[in-house]
Amino acid sequence: MNGADDIDALLPQTQCTRCGYSGCRPYAEAIANGEANINQCPPGGAATIAALAALLHRDALLLNPQNGIEGPLLVAVIDEERCIGCAKCLPPCPVDAIVGARKQMHTVIAALCTGCELCVAPCPVDCIAMVPARDIAPTPSENRMRFSSHTARTQRTAQRYADLLNAKKQTARQ
Ligand code: SF4
Ligand code: SF4
Ligand code: SF4
User: Fold this and answer.
1) 167-170 long-range Cβ contacts below 8 angstroms, 24+ apart
2) Can you tell me the distance from the alpha carbon of 136 to that of 133, in angstroms, rounded to the nearest whole number?
């Protein structure tokens, strides 16, 4: 039996959540545990299904249309004229591909963008569009590495806030 590591290695690592899981790794674990089928990942499409089928000695299935369709690789673009600098697009980006600070115009670094679309809905002025990627797309292993850095950074930030809060509580008790 192949484990989640082997399965995860075949997933695109966009972290888009379209499979119904919070990212590629949770979906890989669900497949490994027999809780999810191999046809739930639109970014991976037929090629990923075929690779998973070969790994797990199963029949290849058609992509589950409820999760979306397979399409060309997309990249996010911000209309900088309309951007109000609210920074709401920053936290959802799994690979820190958006640069900008509060009250400043934001920009997507196209070469880092996984095309996950997670930044689109939070934008209050709808100034983020998904367009066909023109540059060479990041590889799944690059996506995984950047997601890992992003996760480590957000965990450090959360820990720092928790420590600050605790320190304030301690001071208030004295
Ligand atoms: S890339 Fe595929 S496996 Fe990863 S989160 Fe998106 S749909 Fe799920
Ligand atoms: S810029 Fe948007 S589409 Fe690109 S990786 Fe970040 S959240 Fe996903
Ligand atoms: S969410 Fe939209 S308006 Fe806000 S910083 Fe991002 S691109 Fe600009």
Assistant:
1) none
2) 8
From the CB of 75, is ligand 3 less than 6 Å away? Answer: no
- Which pLDDT tens digit goes with each residue over 47-71? 999 999 999 999 999 999 999 999 9
Taking the C-alpha atoms of residue 93 and residue 122, their distance in angstroms, rounded to an integer, is 11
Tell me the pTM: 0.91
Cα 15 to its chain centre, rounded Å, is 3
Q: Does domain 72-174 have CATH number 3.30.70.20?
A: yes
Domain 4-67 classified CATH 3.40.50.2000? Answer: no
Cβ 66 vs Cβ 117: under 8 Å:
no
Of the listed ligands, the closest to the CA of 123 is 3
Six-digit token pair at 166? 């605790």
